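Researcher: I'd like a candidate sequence for this fold, 286 residues long. If you have to choose between options at a position, lean toward the conservative one.
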C-alpha cells in the first residue's frame, strides 16, 4: 500500500458520508472503511482511508488538528502489516529507538535522523531520539531500512511496558498502576488485533471476488478473440478462392471448395442448397 493509507479514530459521532466528504478535500479516495463497536463504541470507532496519492497523506497530516462536527478526530499513518509489528502499528509515540546506536558515529546519527524530522532530544548512549511530532516516527518506520555510513541500523518505536525507559530505571513505580495499565493495553491490543483480522478478511474476500471476475472477463475476451480470428481466416480463404476463380473460371475444383467455404463460414445459419450458393456466387463475381 505504501504511504497512502491513514488510520482515523474518535469517529463515534461521524457518519461515513460526512467522513468521506471531509477527506475528499485532500485528494482522490480509492478506499474508505468505517468500523464501529456496536456494544461499546467508547474506544473502537475508527476508519481506514486510502488515497490515490501519497501527497494527500502529507497534506492531511500537515493540516492537523482535524475537526468534524466540532470534535477533533485522531489521525495517524497506517503502517503496513508486512513490515510493521502489531505494537508498531498501534502505539503512538514521538520516541524512536535505535539498535546498537554506539556502533555508529554520534554526529552521523544526529545529522541523518535530523533530516527525517524535528528532533527535540537525542540520547546517543541510550539509543533514543525524541521527535516533536509522532508522525515523524511513523514516517521513519515507513521508509525502512536505514543506513548509516553504509551499515544498516535497526529502528523501531519505543513501546511502553515492553521496553524499559532508561530515564526511569532507578525509580520505583507503583506496581498496581503498572499492572492495571498493562491489562488495559493488552485488552486494547487484543481487540484492535481482532479488528485488523476482520478488516483483512473483508479485503481478502473482495480481492478474491475481483480475481474471479477478472478470470471470467479473460475467458470471455478469449472466446470473442478466437471467434473473430476464425472469421478473419475464413474470409481470407474465401477471398483467395474468389481470386483463383477469377483467374480460372472453368475450374470445377475451385467452385466446389468455395461452396464448402461458404457453408462453413455460417455455422449458425440455415444452410442453403449448393445450387443457390453457386448462383449467388456467380452473381457476386459478375
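Model: Candidate sequence:
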Amino acid at each position: 500500500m505504501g504511504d497512502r493509507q491513514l488510520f482515523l479514530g474518535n469517529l463515534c459521532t461521524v457518519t461515513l458520508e460526512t467522513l468521506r466528504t471531509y477527506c475528499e478535500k485532500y485528494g482522490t479516495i480509492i478506499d474508505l472503511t468505517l468500523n464501529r463497536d456496536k456494544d461499546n463504541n467508547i474506544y473502537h470507532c475508527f476508519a481506514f482511508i486510502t488515497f490515490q496519492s501519497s501527497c494527500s497523506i502529507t497534506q492531511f497530516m500537515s493540516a492537523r488538528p482535524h475537526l468534524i462536527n466540532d470534535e477533533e478526530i485522531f489521525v495517524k499513518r497506517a503502517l503496513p502489516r508486512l513490515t510493521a509489528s502489531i505494537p508498531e502499528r498501534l502505539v503512538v509515540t514521538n520516541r524512536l529507538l535505535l539498535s546498537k546506536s554506539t556502533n555508529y558515529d554520534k554526529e552521523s546519527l544526529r545529522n541523518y535522523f535530523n533530516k527525517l524530522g524535528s528532533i527535540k532530544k537525542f540520547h546517543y548512549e541510550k539509543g533514543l531520539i525524541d521527535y516533536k511530532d509522532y508522525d515523524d516516527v511513523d514516517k521513519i518506520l515507513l521508509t525502512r531500512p536505514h543506513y548509516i555510513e553504509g551499515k544498516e541500523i535497526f529502528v523501531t518505536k519505543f513501546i511502553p511496558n515492553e521496553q524499559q525507559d532508561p530515564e526511569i530505571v532507578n525509580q520505583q513505580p507503583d506496581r498496581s498502576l503498572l499492572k492495571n495499565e498493562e491489562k488495559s493495553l493488552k485488552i486494547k491490543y487484543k481487540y484492535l488485533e481482532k479488528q485488523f483480522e476482520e478488516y483483512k478478511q473483508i479485503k481478502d474476500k473482495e480481492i478474491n471476488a475481483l480475481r474471479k471476475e477478472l478470470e471470467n472477463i479473460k475467458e470471455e475476451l478469449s472466446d470473442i478473440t478466437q471467434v473473430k480470428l476464425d472469421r478473419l481466416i475464413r474470409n481470407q480463404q474465401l477471398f483467395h478462392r474468389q481470386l483463383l476463380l477469377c483467374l480460372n473460371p472453368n475450374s470445377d475444383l475451385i467452385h466446389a471448395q468455395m461452396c464448402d467455404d461458404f457453408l462453413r463460414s455460417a455455422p449458425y445459419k440455415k444452410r442453403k442448397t449448393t445450387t443457390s450458393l453457386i448462383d449467388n456466387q456467380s452473381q457476386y463475381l459478375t
